[in-house]
Amino acid sequence: MRILIAALVGLPLGVVLGPEAPLIAMGGGLALLFASLARAPATEAVLDKVGLGQGMSALDVGAGPGAVMRLMAERVGPQGRVTGIEIDDKLGTQALADLRAGGGAEFELIQANVLELDKLPGSPFDLTYCRLFLMHMQDPVAVLEKMMMWTRPGGVVAAQEFDFGAIAIEPPCPAMAEFNRVFEGVFRGHGRNLRAGRQLPAQFEAAGIGLPDGTLTEAKYLPLKDMAAMLVGVYQGLFASAAELGIADPVRAEAFKADMADAAADGRYYCLTPILIAAWKRVA
Prior knowledge:
Layout: H1 2-8, H2 29-37, H3 40-49, E1 57-61, H4 67-76, E2 81-86, H5 89-102, E3 106-111, E4 125-131, H6 140-149, E5 151-163, E6 168-170, H7 174-189, H8 200-206, E7 214-218, E8 221-223, H9 224-244, H10 250-266, E9 270-272, E10 275-282
């Protein structure tokens, strides 16, 4: 990942950097940002906090390439079951093949739109979980209602989402103002929720799950020189979508790259990353 990030600064504007399925409409920039910030330890901490263990069953809603399912399998073991829901058939098929090749648990993957599912094979589960999924949903409460329905009494519903409202550089600099303008514009332009993380407790309550039993947050405060290449890469990945929305142009984009390079070289600036927020509730 470090080599990839280092190479991004020299890429032409608008290059697509291998987006994950839910992010295709916005280019690879968000996929890069999520891959860089949604590290496995933060998810592992949630799985351990909720007590996922040997012989249990777990559901990952919006399973993508299966990374979370692998973490679940490490905890439930050979006697446990791990199921994923993924709307992208090609992505899900590959994920299931990779997971079964690696072994460690019983794996199943259901190719479907979660909102179109009612009864789910294998339910109810000891844990139903989603990560960076509700932010893409027009009706996240409806998703949480489904997750509660698929959770056994005494089981746990858990969600983990970013809150992008926290991202900032101190002291303020023009480059970050431009980054936020484009990032927020593209996010909103494609109907994504910038503050999904902080809204989890209210969404849990609205879904009838109840207020969370616990929450867990992770954020980093890093020298801008360690973050600048990634921020430029994200901007480049979003450029094509931003241009289509009428909020970006090559002149402003080149000025952003120069301003960010200057700020990174200055040494005074520090970057606060988005906050990754998890919430969970044991259901009655």
